[in-house]
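Batch job 17 of 40 flagged for manual review because the log was empty.
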Amino acid sequence: MTERRLPAREAIREAAARLFPVNGYAGTSVRDIAGEAGVDAALVIRHFGSKEQLFVTIMQLDLDHQPLIDEPIETLGERFIQFILDGADQVRGTFLALLRASDSDGVAPRLREMHDAAFVAPLRARLSGADAELRARLAAALVGGLLYSLWVVGDEELLATDHRDIVRHYGALLQSLITPAPIE
């Protein structure tokens, strides 16, 4: 029986998706990706333009069906935290790979674009009020703080806490930015 090969572009994407989270941006070369994909290194550049472009393409979470878009605004805080914790392995790998690559000149500007496009803009579009832009950015910072505490610092207390408790408490913090109480 003959092994069925993926088209080159898809094989490159899959190889990069396996290597970047494990080896990081700096620790993964175009040759490594090409070797893993079973293609010539020139094909990586031909299909993706550069290592930076491939990295940014690969290191995006699948946000097509995520709570920022689908969930009712009144329950978005808890549902988004639940979404992150339910997909912890993928979110962790992507977050750490992005964090480690953030000092690369070619990657840093794209990370800001991704941050705005994947989190801030969809949330901002759902918020109302004169300070909606600020609240969307604070919400992104709040979520980033949780990810940092869990996976960079490795806060053992948080890691050992039942996810339902994290969802309840952290979700309430996030919700307070999404639907703030009226200021009197």
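Reviewer: the log was empty due to a logging misconfiguration, but the result itself is present. The chain has eleven helices and no strands. Unflagging and moving on to job 18.
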